[in-house]
Structures are given as C-alpha cells and as structure tokens.
Write a structure and sequence with these properties.
single chain, alpha+beta, Arc Repressor Mutant, subunit A, SH3 type barrels, 4 domains, five-stranded antiparallel β-sheet, four-stranded antiparallel β-sheet, 9 helices, 12 strands, about 35% helix, CBASS_pafABC_assoc_protein, Protein pafC, WYL_dom, WCX_dom
Length: about 325
C-alpha cells in the first residue's frame, strides 16, 4: 500500500531514515560506545536504537552479499561499526546527478500547489551552491501549456468563492455548465485538478483544469457541505471499483501501451496477444478509446460494448459504400 505524503507511517519512515544516516558516522566516531550512552546522545530510546541496529545489518551496497553490507560488533551492551559500506563518506554528485536534481527542484518551484515553496527554494539553493558550475548549465524549466489557467483557477479558489464552470467531460464526450464549490487545487500525475463539490451531481468531483473551457467567479462564497470529503489521490485520480464495468480485450503488439497508461486488473499472454481486463468509468469512453486503436485491439466483453463498437464500425463502413449525393463531388 502506498503511503500518503505526510501520513503518520510516511513521516515515521522518513524520521527513521534520517536516524540511520546519522547513526553510522556517529558510531564510527565512538567505537565501543555503550547502547545506553549512544541512545542518550542520539535522543532515542535503547529499544529504538537496537531496532535501528538490527536494520543496519541488512543495509549496504548493491550486491548485498558478504563484504557489501554494513557490519558491526556487539560486545554485551557495547557496539562498534567494523565496516561502514562507505556511508561515512560525504555524498559526491556527478555532474549529471547534480543537474537532474536542480532541474527537478526548479520544476517543483514553478508548479502551483506543490508543497511549501520556501522549503523547495532553500533545498535548490543548497544544491546549486554545492554543485557550483555543474548547476549552471543553460537549462530553462517551464510549465506545460495550461499553467496560466491553473494559476488563475488557484487564485479564484484561494478567494473562497463559488465558480460557474464550462467543463468538457471526456468520458461522455460532452460539454456542460455547472456551479461548483471549490475545495482545493492539486497536481496529480503532472496534471492540475480542481476538487470541488458539484451542485449538479450533488457529490465531490475532480475537474481537470485543462478541460475547464471557461469559468466565472461568483459573488457567493464557496460552501461545500460537511459530507464533501477530499479524495485520496495517492494512487491516482481514477480508482477502479468492483461496481464499474469490466472490459476484456485481446491486445496486439501495437496496443500494449494501454497496460502502462491505464489501470488494468489483469494481463496474461495468449500466443502473440495479451488478454487484458480493465475497469472503466464509462462504456462510451471505452468505445471511443478502443475504436481509435483499430486492429491492434479486439474487444471480447462485455457484450454491450462489443455490440456498440460493431454497430459504429458498420455505420462507418456504410458511409464509404453510400453513393455521393446528387450534384456532389467526391
């Protein structure tokens, strides 16, 4: 299970990683130190220290065999690190590693709604200072198209007003107008989303900002009801559930990319083809997607989707067979 950023389990893991990184050089500088003295010096309990030492036994360098793992000697209640696996050496970044970190942090700094900007800028300044000329490569980081709209939506949400939006729903291939009570703006998978209470649906909805064709800030304040609970997006916006339609496909080599781009439940091989099952939120969306893939995909279920695709394909072929209208030219 993926931990949400900021969740108690994630925070505990981050705290423990920090302790482990500090523990080896601390013990290296104090060979034979007692566990009681080390625990007091590090500000942890003796049990916590012993648990960390147990974890260190299986930490080390790739290969993870004899001579690769951190090693230590425990003599009663005294501990001595006998092999540090290089963890006591200061981190040295290669030019490529330094540049990759700088670019990633610059992108975060330019992305609306991503954590506290001041913390990102402090980390960026430290890495740029440590990397020196390595971080001075002529690299410009720009947000993808739609960044300005995301900024405008975020500013409107921060003012706390309801919004009237014109929104394109890809699943139904339709554009609707609705009034929403904004809750937050967030980034998921590199895309900006407005999470809001939709008065038309009487439920919480996620709206992709790049599909909001237009919006108007209303005079009335945003007032999501108490039952409007933010969605857990730690594993993505679309969360397949057993009540959604289950689609079964036979996929050729040219269509295998859909198993990486969309959530799928199962993939198995049958000769040169893959048999794929996936949940979809709407059969109309699935129909348009699968027709666009042509001969690379054959739909085997459900029967309703098979019939809809067969009927649409037949209608398209009929258009080619029909003679041109009188006086018309082809």
């Amino acid at each position: 299970m993926t931990q949400r950023p900021g969740a108690p389990g994630a925070r505990a893991s981050a705290d423990r990683l920090g302790r482990l990184l500090n523990l080896v050089p601390y013990l290296m500088a104090r060979p034979g130190i007692s566990t009681a003295e080390a625990a007091a010096g590090l500000g942890v309990t003796q049990q916590q220290l012993r648990d960390d030492l147990e974890l260190l036994w299986v930490c080390g360098l790739p290969g993870y065999g004899p001579g690769d793992l951190i090693d230590m000697a425990l003599d009663g209640d005294r501990v001595t690190i006998t092999y540090d696996a290089g963890i006591d050496r200061p981190l040295r970044l290669t030019p490529d590693e330094a540049l990759a970190l700088v670019v990633a942090l610059r992108m975060l700094a330019e992305t609306p709604g991503i954590g506290p900007r001041d913390a990102i800028e402090r980390a960026l300044a430290k890495i740029e200072s440590a990397a020196g000329d390595q971080a001075g490569a002529p690299v410009a980081v720009r947000l993808p198209a739609g960044g300005e709209k995301l900024d405008r939506v975020r500013a409107a949400v921060e003012r706390g007003h309801a919004l009237r939006i014109t929104y394109y729903t890809a699943a139904r291939d339709e554009t609707t107008e609705r009034v929403v009570d904004p809750m937050r703006v967030l980034m998921v998978g590199g895309r900006g989303y407005l999470e809001a209470w939709c008065r038309s649906a009487d439920a919480t909805r996620m709206f992709r900002v790049d599909r909001i064709d237009a919006f108007t800030e209303l005079d009335e304040p945003a007032a999501p009801p108490a039952r409007a609970v933010p969605q857990d997006v730690s594993e993505g916006v679309f969360r397949p559930t057993p009540d959604l339609p289950l689609v079964t496909l036979r996929v050729g080599r040219g269509g295998r990319w859909i198993t990486e781009y969309y959530p799928v439940e199962q993939v198995s091989r049958d000769g040169e083809e893959w048999v794929v099952t996936m949940r979809v939120s709407d059969l109309g969306w699935a129909q348009r997607l699968l027709l666009s893939l042509g001969a690379d995909v054959t739909v085997t279920g459900p029967a309703e989707l098979v019939e809809r695709i067969r009927a649409q394909a037949a209608a398209a072929l009929d258009q080619y067979a029909a003679p041109p209208s009188a006086g018309g030219r082809v």
